[in-house]
Amino acid sequence: MFVLKKPMILGGKPVFSDSSLTTRAPWSGRELGAICTATDEQVDVAMSHADKAFRSPMPLEERVEVCARVSSAITRRKLEFVELLIEETGKPRQFADGEVERMAATFLLASQAGDAMHEVELDLSFDKRGAGFSGKWQRFAVGPILGFVPYNWPLNLAAHKLAPAIVAGCPIVMKVSPLAPLCTLALGELLIECGMQPESLSVMHVSNDQAQRMLTDPRIRMLSFTGSPSVGWMLKEKVPRKRVALELGGNAPVIICEDADLSLAVSRTALSGYAYAGQVCISAQNVFVQRSVLDEALNMFADATTSCKTGDPSLDDTVCGPLIDDSARNRVLDRIESSGAKVVARARADDHPLLVPPTLLTDVDPKSEVFCEEIFGPVLNAVGFDSIEGLVEELNRGRYRLQASIFTSDRERADYAFRSLEFGGVVVNESPSLRFDNMPYGGEGDSGFGREGVRFAIEEMTTPRTGLNRRE
Questions:
Q1: Which residues of 423-439 are buried (b: 16+ CB within 10 A; e: fewer)?
Q2: What is the pLDDT of residues 440-451, one digit of tens each?
Q3: Mean pLDDT, residues 335-348 taken together
Q4: pLDDT tens digit sequence for 365-400
Q5: What class, spelled out in words, does domain 8-248+447-468 have in CATH?
Q6: Is 281 annotated in the active site?
Q7: Is a pLDDT exceeding 50 seen at residue 1?
Q8: Which residues pair with 309 in a beta bridge?
Q9: Is residue 156 a contact partner of residue 99, using CB atoms and an 8 Å limit?
């Protein structure tokens, strides 16, 4: 299934180089293969291809048809993508299956979004000067895009850059994650097979210095970045006049009110916090429980934690698999240890060098990293609260405000949370991990800048242009 050395995609063609990056399976530790790393000359060639493709794009109807073919092809080859995703990232089967299904849906949504690029007539009748003119507006591609994709969702998050870029007419150079390059490369190969304009796509592993050089090159017109806040904001500062979209992760809070369905709240929150070892930017992390039901909720969370199926990601019922590498595991363990928090419960887990058992904490120092920063591990912090209004004010002062959720049976309280929480998304009676691929997705504060979601990403990747014509 895997080859030892895979070529990069350079202007739609497979191209080798002398050096390569090896990737290993987090669970088995075996070598899966390698992807060629780009030379400086190849980086320049990728940008030249993108610039040329931008000036001679495929017609819109052909671009949306490519997205439809890609969606169908992903569905036909679903098992192939699922197995690769499990192997390369350690994502448990049930969630790998879901990612591939969503990837197909993302391209299907793109195939239906061509109307976003259509010409729109402007009504000028409100102004007497309009009697002598006709007006229109239309969206046009901003130009070649540099995309960064993370290891945790190397397929669907890549799709959320690639699919809207195809519709918008923006060539794209994708920087793969060094921790999951084969998944994104496989998707790029499929795009070319399905008829994507070859010169409009390059998929490669590049160094950080090469990536920054590409970003500041005038041929690259936009950055679409998903990754860490420190890197994302640093890159944005380097190109203040370029279009930038950042999705930088979060620290997703869950509010459980005393009138909530506790069984539902606990089960959905625990799954959100522990699934895929918490390596999701909208995983539940800090759980705020109204004090009148805090003890009962803690007992239920403890049961959910100890019973969480942890281990081999290839098994159908595994919820929490391995962390991606030693660095990630050590960071999570260090933050738990340094927090000074009380460990209420831990899951039963086999001894594996990259496993961190799902862990429930309480008495957490609100200034500790395990509370304030994105943990990106299978950890839940349980905290009591009294006033929903006071809690909302506290959460709105937080650095990371990507998604939040509230469990309550009171519609007015749910509406208050939606109107008052200054987050990119507010989910009612479900975990903050819930995302649909057509929604405007992005955060406030340090969590990001701009929005993903196919039609919303197309808006980020295009600019409106107005046309006024004097009538003869």
A1: bbbbbbebbbbebebeb
A2: 999 999 999 999
A3: 95
A4: 999 999 999 999 999 999 999 999 999 999 999 999
A5: alpha beta
A6: yes
A7: no
A8: none
A9: yes
- Residues 88, 99, 247, 444: which is the catalytic one? 247
Listed by start position, the domains of the chain span: 8-248+447-468, 252-436
CA distance 287 to 303: 16
* Arithmetic mean of pLDDT, 432-455: 97
Whether 8-248+447-468 shares its CATH topology with 252-436 is answered no
Rounded Cα distance, 228 and 230, in Å: 6
The pLDDT value given to residue 13 = 98
The pLDDT score that the predictor gives to residue 472 is 74
Q: Pull the structure tokens for residue 10.
A: 């350079």
Percent of the chain with pLDDT over 90: 98
Known catalytic membership, residue 393: no
Q: Is the dihedral of CA 324, 103, 234, 206 positive or negative?
A: positive
Tell me how many degrees the CA angle 382-332-426 measures, rounded to the nearest 5: 45
Strand bridging mode 400-401 / 403-407: unpaired
Spatial separation of the C-alpha atoms in residues 87 and 82, rounded to whole Å: 9
Question: Is pLDDT above 90 for 417?
Answer: yes
Neighbours of 193 (CB within 10 A): 11
pLDDT band at 2 (very low <50, low <70, confident <90, very high): very low
Mean pLDDT computed over 124-144 = 96
Residue 215: what pLDDT? 98
Report how far residue 379's alpha carbon sits from residue 285's, in angstroms, rounded to the nearest whole number: 6
Among residues 36, 183, 281, 320, which one is catalytic? Answer: 281
Overall size of the chain counted in residues = 472
With CA atoms as reference, report the closest residue to 349 among 299, 306, 285: 306
Determine contact, residues 247/443, Cβ cutoff 8 Å.
yes
Token couple for 265: 């709240």
Structure tokens at 316: 């159908």
Strands (E), 46-144: 120-122, 133-141
Say which CATH class 252-436 falls into: alpha beta
CA distance 93 to 84: 11
Identify whether the C-beta of residue 78 lies closer than 8 Å to the C-beta of residue 100.
yes
